[in-house]
Amino acid sequence: MLLTPRELNVFIDRALEEDSVGADVTTSALIPPHLEAQASLVPQEPGILAGLDVAAASFRRVNPSLVFTQKLLDGDRVEGGEIVATISGSMASILTAERTALNFLQRMSGIATLTDEYVRAVDGTTASIADTRKTVPGLRLLDKYSVSIGGGRNHRMTLADGVLIKDNHLAALQGEGVDLGQAIKRARVKAPHTVKIEVEVESVDAALAAAAAGADIVMLDNMSLEDMAKAVDQIAADCIVEASGGITLENVAEVAQSGVDIISIGALTHSSRALDISLDYETKNA
Description:
Elements: H1 5-18, H2 25-30, E1 36-43, E2 47-48, H3 52-62, E3 67-70, E4 77-78, E5 85-90, H4 91-121, E6 128-130, H5 140-149, E7 163-165, H6 167-174, H7 180-190, E8 197-201, H8 204-212, E9 217-221, H9 225-235, E10 240-244, H10 252-257, E11 262-264, H11 267-270, E12 277-283
Parallel strand pairs: 6-11, 7-8, 8-9, 9-10, 10-11
Antiparallel strand pairs: 1-5, 1-12, 2-4, 3-5
Helix pairs in contact: 1-3, 3-4, 4-5, 8-9
């Protein structure tokens, strides 16, 4: 995991507090404290697992005596109906923690599964699939961990991880008479020498200008396949070439075949569908 146990507990505690697990009126009213059960985590569809450690920690955070036994690991491909883990102990505690644990596991596995689909779609090319910062506020580390489990790469984790000059930066600089090349040179002088300079462009001419000005990475944003290929042909020897914008499972293979090095896809984290995973119960005693 990208998180220490202490950091993970911060995520989980926030989620449990959001659900008012200390005041589960339904479970308190219906489930006797002595009742024990075993529950199984069972996906209802194929996918890639991610977040089992988070789910386990969620159950244990509610009741440390709960026993979470994993049958599979993060990154494993699972079929519908396959038991991936079991939880045993206080039925009341399992019921109270269920929704929080499943929310984490379903979302994270959904991201990993969608990422895997994109990665497999570009298999045989030199392109890598990467995420963006379009993550759920507060859950970026978990979202990006899930992408990595699905075989993708992490783009910038934070604004501090690299210079990315976008259209709005350039628009803001126009009033000062600063053009694309000058913006790159300014960033090179003022930014830490340890970070790369990336520039977002929307035309072949702008891509050529960015590469000529010394950009480390040129992002081809919402460009046609024809223009992507032209840009790659002319700048690939001088910089890393990234494609972004309008990427779907239907066109990602064609984008990869243009020769770009990286394909960044916001949909991996902002539009992934949760993997359908249920928790099935078996009462141990009355």
